[in-house]
Amino acid sequence: MAPTLYDEKPEPGDLIEIFRGNYQHWALYVGEGFVVHLAPATEVPDAGPNHMMSVFCDKAKVKKEEIWDVVGHDQWSVNNLLDKKYQVSRPVRPIHQILKDAQAYVDRELPFSVFNGNCEHFATELRYGKAESRQVRQAVETVGMAAMVGFGVLAVAGVAAAIFGGGSKKKNKEEY
After folding, report:
1. Catalytic residue among 57, 96, 119, 121, which?
2. Would you give per-residue pLDDT tens digits along the chain (176 residues)?
3. Is 57 tagged catalytic?
4. Known catalytic residue: 119?
5. Residues 37, 51, 96, 121: which is the catalytic one?
6. How far from 34 is each of 67, 74, 164, 167, CA to CA, in Å?
7. pTM higher than 0.85 for the full model?
8. In principle, which of 13, 112, 146, 165 could form an S-S bond with 60, CB 3.0–4.6 Å?
């Protein structure tokens, strides 16, 4: 049972961020209640933990579907996240070009990778002409920070061992 009114009315060319729990799914609003999105086989509304299976997919299909069929019961918002970042160097592409390119992809199967070819990469490439995924960047930064903290802890432990426990366990023959 899909709602009939938008909480936030999207405009053609807007990026739609759909909150799936552990990650966000992204689509491009193309007007008249429809979105175009890159969807691996596991990307369906209300799939619960099965959404995470997309990390094992290597192909995905570009679909044009009604926004409510894609959103399901999940929260969503218009999020043209890179508009400010690119307003000078790479402004939003002309809407007619975004919509034309989006339509040209519909029903095509594309390579899929969580790290460099996911739904957010697809949507941002349509809008800005450059594929970018904030989710991937944040995940890499988080993993990198955790690795650096882990390495730091090991380094401190190593230094402490060398300073406080680094004495030789061998006894001199003279001590016997």
Report:
1. 119
2. 344 455 679 999 999 999 988 889 999 999 999 999 999 987 766 655 554 555 668 999 999 999 999 999 999 999 998 998 877 777 899 999 999 999 999 999 999 998 889 999 999 999 999 999 987 666 556 544 444 444 555 554 554 455 555 554 454 555 54
3. no
4. yes
5. 37
6. 5, 16, 66, 71
7. no
8. 112
